[in-house]
């Protein structure tokens, strides 16, 4: 029969497993949304949108279970150290970021549907746009891996990747402006590119928020973003 603290750790491990599955689910949504956007694939767009209900269900379940775990540990007088408590708080925060990332994937899938609607928007995607989309998918994948492995080094790579996404976005918008000025792109298509480029940056922001949590849990460093770089300060306090 496990002690109270052992039971708490087992339940926390189960929560981390559920969180990892949620991360993979959101990544699949994002991949499908981008595939729908670039390939004008209505089936992939519909699939991505439909997954949002399951993401929302799991989001609520993880949060409720996290609260129950802490409540039960308090009632049972379990001997929990600060790391155990931080782990549950990290799970709650990352769970929230994943749910928001899923919402962004839905928005991208809706943009794909605009490309295929009755008043379909026509245009050619800049090569940089596809590179940016693939980069965002890769960032989310690395983000999920850093959570599953408690890997602060990979989490740091995720942080640095945000700047690359911002640079890709600037390049995409500059190219769209040039094509628009030359009459090689419609305003409607340029607006759609602008919207999805913004969504890519939002996904990267959610990933960096998750990476911050991984770094804090594993190293104790509190990460803050300055204008030029990421700065880590602080250490865990024992007790």
Could you name the key traits of this structure?
239 residues; mainly alpha; Methane Monooxygenase Hydroxylase, Chain G, domain 1
Structure described in brief:
The protein is mostly helical and 239 residues long.
Total number of beta strands: 2
Q: What shape does the CA trace take?
A: elongated
- Share of helix, binned: over 70%
CATH architecture: Up-down Bundle
Number of helices: 7
Strand content: under 5%
Strand order of the largest sheet: 1-2
CATH superfamily: Phosphate transport system protein phou homolog 2, domain 2
| Major β-sheet profile | 2 strands, antiparallel
Provide the gyration radius in Å: 20 Å
Domain module count? 1
| N-to-C series of helices and strands | HHHHHHHEE
Structural class, by secondary structure, is: mainly alpha
Secondary-structure map:
Blueprint: H1 4-39, H2 42-50, H3 52-76, H4 82-116, H5 127-149, H6 152-181, H7 187-219, E1 222-225, E2 230-233
Antiparallel strand pairs: 1-2
Helix pairs in contact: 1-2, 1-3, 1-4, 1-5, 2-4, 3-4, 4-7, 5-6, 5-7, 6-7
Protein model, in words:
With 239 residues, the chain is mainly α. The protein has one domain (4-233): Phosphate transport system protein phou homolog 2, domain 2 (Methane Monooxygenase Hydroxylase, Chain G, domain 1). It has 7 helices and 2 strands, in the order αααααααββ. The chain has helices spanning 4-39, 42-50, 52-76, 82-116, 127-149, 152-181, 187-219, and strands at residues 222-225, 230-233. Strands 1-2 form a two-stranded antiparallel sheet. Helix 1 runs antiparallel to helix 5 (127-149) and helix 2 runs antiparallel to helix 4. The longest helix is centred in the first third of the chain and has 36 residues, at 4-39. It is elongated and about 70 Å long.
